[in-house]
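Handoff note, outgoing to incoming analyst
You'll be picking up this chain. Sequence as last confirmed:
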Amino acid sequence: MGLLRFIANLKFLPETRRLEFYPPFFMMRVKVLEARDNWRHVRLRLPLTAFSRNLSGDMFGGWQAALADPIAALCCARVFPGYSVWTRAMSIDFQRTGNTDLELRFEMRPEQEAAISAELKSNGRATPTFEYGFYLTDGSLCTRITNTVAIRPRGYAKTNAEQLDLNGL
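Most recent structure output, in case you need it:
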């Protein structure tokens, strides 16, 4: 049994604690501050440590990207079970220097959830985009994340047209 499967099977631990034990997040010392309403509202702390600092003493952008990448997909996988879910695209806008611990704040709004549900019902798939961010300890926005998630039926295979479209990017 692999390490990830082992951690997933530790059912005596809350899901939030199991996420903290996910090896990359464990090494990054990520702390789940809040995960409520089936992951529709999430707050995570990414500490500024000796390992997360770049040469100027600020947070590496790659650490932010690594934490931000799966969060929207994790939420969608819980809210829309039975689908394959993954990050399709992500962009990061570093607006301020990450010179403190950072707090990632993610929220799936009810109207966004309703729109995704409607799209899944009519098309059998959806590709929603979420905006969320990392905040400094003073509450100011440090980094804006735009994350597009692919929600597809299990066993989904791309059509030739989709493959051509991806090749044209």
